[in-house]
Structures are given as structure tokens and as C-alpha cells.
Known about the structure:
This protein is 79% helix and 0% strand.
Amino acid sequence: MEGNISREQLKILVHLLLPLCIYWTAEEMSVSIIADITTNALCPAKSTCSQAIYINGLQQMVVGICKMVVIPVLGQLADEYGRKPLLLLIVSTAIFPSAILAIDESKGFVYAYYVLRMISHIMSQGSIFCISAAYAADILDGRSRAAAFGWIHGILSVSHVLGNLLARLLPGTYIFEVSVALLIIAPMYMIIFLTETVKLTPNLNQHLRWSSKAYKLVQDRYSSMRYALHVVTSSSTLKCICLVSFFYDMGMSGISSVLMYYLKSEFDFNKNQFSEILMMVGVGSIITQMLIFPLVNSLVGERVVLRIALLASITYALLYGLAWASWVPYFGALFRMVYILERPSTNAIVSKASSSSDQGKTQGLVAGAEAIGSFLAPLVMSPLTSWFLSSNAPFNCKGFSLICAAFALAMAFYFAWILPSTQEENGESVEAPLLA
């Protein structure tokens, strides 16, 4: 990694990365099979299922609405009450949806799975990255943070490979049982080994009545949100990166919400093809995020890496939208290994533009901007994809919705291009770690 990291700092970071790897592996195991399970439960003996597309889009829309509020609040709470309890809460919520499908895969259980997964994703999507990034910023100085963010996202890619390898090797009936076991191990590891990095202040309100405590809690959250908004709006860098994140997530969330159903309908892809693509992407992403990103970032900086990643995302969307043969999705997946660098480069830009005491708040607000994009995307992508996959399409281009997503990604690239090149705009140095 860039910068000097002591053995103690590395040990603390490893105790964060290992349970995250277990958690993401368990989550990834179900990705390649859920399209088949949903289609079989809601539309038996059919390869195309509008109900499955719409329920997936509805889930993503509700998650996006709730994340707009939940992620910034979780970021604030992580600054005030510690990273560890928030990470434990987030990771634990994923146990229940997997447990439902481990019991049964019938129609009623599939509906219950989507309800519980919706709650889990409201808590986890985006927030686990921003809190993990704040955790890394607590223990590392500014020179090492970008590389650490690359390692956090690289661990996600490692988990993608492991999760899809397990999904490829295990019979479908055992995937969710193994997933539940891993999802229980992850929070248990955190309870035992994860070190808290935030120095907590004594609770001065413990003797207040419950009504006064509730009022004080709402008042504190409102004040904290206003302060966080002030921090972001007073920084041209943070305002611009929020727009980048909004348009990027609008495009990529829209693609991810319909991609498997589009590939299943257009090329009759199943669990095996999905796993092959995801494993290929995962292996390449490990190299780009954990090895190439720290090196390239030290040479050209986060802004250049961000622009390259966004160009790759536009190419990815166009290739999938115009896919003319079953090998094109495999080729297009190569660009996913590059555009995945958008996340660590964004985290690094936000961290450099924020003070050490505001890491959770600013990371949370940027993730909130992403959530707005992920809320809006299914409103367009789900009906548009369903329309162009049907026999009533106005013209023959089944991937037209993915081409539309490329325009949102082009907007993200525009704002990344005009992103200010100024250094930290706050008065406090962000080079020193919070946990020294």
C-alpha cells in the first residue's frame, strides 16, 4: 500500500476485511440463482417473467427511497456512537432473507424473501461501504486511505469470486443453507475481534425521561443532518462528486436491476452462465482494485481514475444494450473490471475533502445521493425493459433500456470531467488518522 502502515494498523484493518469478505461471499452466493428461483416461483415453465422484473424493480425503488434518509443517518450515527455497532446491525439483517429461502422456495416464501431483502438492503446497500471507508480513515493517514479503499472494494471482488464459485459447485438446494451459516459467522467474528475506532463521549442524557430522550434524539439528528449538508454544500468538490455518484448509480443500478432478466430472455442464460461471468469479473476486479488501483492512483490521482472508470461504464452499457451474440456479455464484462474503480476513487476524493471527524457524515451523504439515483432508475428501467422484451416493442432492440442507462453514465462522466482539482477545502488537515 501507499504510505507507511504499522503492524497494528494492518491488524485492525484485517479484522474489518475478513468479516466483510465472509458477509459479501454469503450475499453473492444467491445472486446467480435468484433470477431462476423467482421466475420458477412466479412464472412456472416460462423463460420471460414480467412479474419477476417488476418485483425486482419495486424492491429497488423502495430501497432507493428509504436509503436516501437511512444512509446519511447511519453515517452520522457511526460518527457519534461508533463504527462497530452500526456494522454489526447492518451485517446481521442479511441473515433473515436467506433463511427464508433456505426453508422453502415456493411463491409465498419468495414474496417474503423480497420483503426481508428489501429491509436488509435499506440498511446495508451503500451504508456498509461508507462506514467501512470511515473506519479505514480512522486508522490510516491520507496517503494510505486511497489504497485501503481499493482493498475494501477488492475484498468485495474476492467475495464475488468465492460466492459464485460456491454457487457454481453447490447444488441449488444447499446454496441458501451455506449462505445463512456464513452470515451468522460474520457478525460473530466482528463481536469478538473488531476494534472500535471512535472515542465515545459519555451519555449525558441517560437520566432524562423517555419523551425528552426521543425529542433530543430527533433534534440531534436534525442538527447533525443540517451540519452535514453544510459541509457538503460548502465544498465544490463534494457537491460535484455527489452529482457524479447520483448519475452513476442511476445508470448502473438501472442496469443491474434488469440485466439478468434481459440476458435470460435474450440468450437463455441460467445460473451457470451468470456465475461464469461474475467469477470472471471478480477475478479481474481483485487485480484492478487491490493491485492496479493503488499504483495508478499514486501516479495520476483519484480524479483521472474516476474518469477512466466512467468511460468504461459507458462502454459496458452500450455493449450489453447492443449485444448481438451470446459471447458479447462475456466481452462486455471486461469493462466491468475497470468501471468498478469508480467506488474506491470516489471514496478517496470524499475522504480527502472531509475532516477526520466528518468522515461518516460526508461518506453517508454521498451514498445518499447514490440512493436517489438507485430509486429513480427502476421507475424507468423496469417498464422499459419489460416493454422491449415483449412482442409489443416498437422496434427490435431488446437492450434499449441499457442504452438509455448509458446516457446517465455520460452525465456522470461530464461532472467527473469538471470536478475541481483543488486539494482539501476544509481548514483541518485530513492527513492524520482519528485513531493514532
